[in-house]
C-alpha cells in the first residue's frame, strides 16, 4: 500500500482515526532496516529513500511520505563515506553538518545486540565554527553478522529526524515513547514504557 499526504487525513478507509507510526528502536532495526537491506518488501510504503545528507533539516519534512503532524520523519538513506576507502561518514549538507553527540547505543532484542543507534545534532555553518540548532537525528545501523551483511550494512541507514524542542511523543497519546530529558546540560534519550 502506498501512502500519500491525502490518504493520511482525507480517506478514513486507509488510516483509522488516531493512527500514528511509532515503531520501537527494535522494530526500526529488525523489521524496517533489515527488510530494506535484504531487499524485501515492506507491508506499507511509508519510509522514503532519500539521501538525508543532501538536504538541510528544515527541507526533510517535505520529503517524508508519512505526514501525520507528529514532527518526526523517517528515511532510508545511503551511507555516504567521507573518503572512498574509509569508515568515516560524510554528514555535511549545503548549509551545515550533522555532528554525533553522546555515545552510540546498542539496540537489543532478547539480550542480543541487533543494531546501533547514533544521535546527531545539526550545526549550521562549517566546522568547527558551526552554530548548534534544535534539529536532532537518530541514525540506525544493523549489526554485522557475516560478510554478506557487512557489505549490505555499509550501504543503507535508517534515520529519524525531529526538532528536540518538540517532543515527538507528546502528541501521540501513547504511553510508550522516546522522551528527551535534560540532565547536566545535555539532552538524553530515554525509552519510556508505561
How would you portray this structure in words?
By secondary structure, the protein is α+β, with helices and mostly antiparallel strands. It has one domain (25-166, 174-191): NAC domain (Metal Binding Protein, Guanine Nucleotide Exchange Factor, Chain A), CATH 2.170.150.80. It has four helices and eight strands. It has helices at 5-9, 25-37, 60-63, 147-153; strands at residues 48-49, 73-78, 96-109, 112-124, 131-142, 156-163, 176-183, 186-193. It has a six-stranded mixed β-sheet with strand order 1-2-6-5-4-3. A two-stranded antiparallel sheet has the order 7-8. Helix 3 links the parallel strand 1 (48-49) and strand 2 (73-78). Mean pLDDT is 75; it is low at 9-13, 149-153 and 167-194.
Tell me the CATH architecture: Beta Complex
Main β-sheet, spatial strand arrangement: 1-2-6-5-4-3
Cα-atom radius of gyration: 17 Å
Total strand segments:
8
Report the principal-axis shape. Answer: globular
Named CATH topology: Metal Binding Protein, Guanine Nucleotide Exchange Factor, Chain A
Q: Give the low-pLDDT segments.
A: 9-13, 149-153, 167-194
Mind summarizing the main beta sheet?
A: 6 strands, mixed
Helix content bin: 10-25%
What's the helix count? 4
CATH class: Mainly Beta
How many separate domains make up the residues?
Answer: 1
Beta-strand percentage? 35-45%
Let me know the average pLDDT. Answer: 75
Termini separation comes to 31 Å
Structural class: alpha+beta
CATH superfamily: NAC domain
GO molecular function: transcription cis-regulatory region binding
Protein name: NAC domain-containing protein
Pfam family, one: NAM
GO cellular component, one term: nucleus
Amino acid at each position: 500500500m502506498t501512502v500519500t499526504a491525502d490518504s493520511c487525513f482525507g480517506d478514513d478507509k486507509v488510516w483509522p482515526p488516531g493512527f500514528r507510526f511509532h515503531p520501537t528502536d527494535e522494530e526500526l532495526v529488525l523489521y524496517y532496516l533489515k527488510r530494506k537491506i535484504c531487499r524485501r518488501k515492506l507491508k506499507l510504503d511509508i519510509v522514503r529513500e532519500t539521501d538525508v545528507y543532501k538536504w538541510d533539516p528544515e527541507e526533510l519534512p517535505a520529503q517524508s511520505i508519512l505526514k501525520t503532524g507528529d514532527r518526526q520523519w523517517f528515511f532510508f538513506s545511503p551511507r555516504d563515506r567521507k573518503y572512498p576507502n574509509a569508515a568515516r561518514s560524510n554528514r555535511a549538507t549545503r548549509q551545515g553538518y550533522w555532528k554525533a553527540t553522546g555515545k552510540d547505543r546498542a539496540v537489543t532484542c532478547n539480550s542480543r545486540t541487533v543494531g546501533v543507534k547514533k544521535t546527531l545534532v545539526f550545526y549550521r555553518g562549517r566546522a568547527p565554527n558551526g552554530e548548534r540548532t534544535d534539529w536532532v537525528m537518530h541514525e540506525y545501523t544493523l549489526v554485522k553478522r557475516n560478510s554478506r551483511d557487512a557489505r549490505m550494512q555499509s550501504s543503507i541507514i535508517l534515520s529519524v529526524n525531529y526538532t528536540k524542542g518538540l517532543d515527538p511523543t507528546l502528541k501521540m497519546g501513547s504511553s510508550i515513547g522516546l522522551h528527551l530529558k535534560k540532565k547536566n546540560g545535555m539532552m538524553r534519550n530515554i525509552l519510556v514504557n508505561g
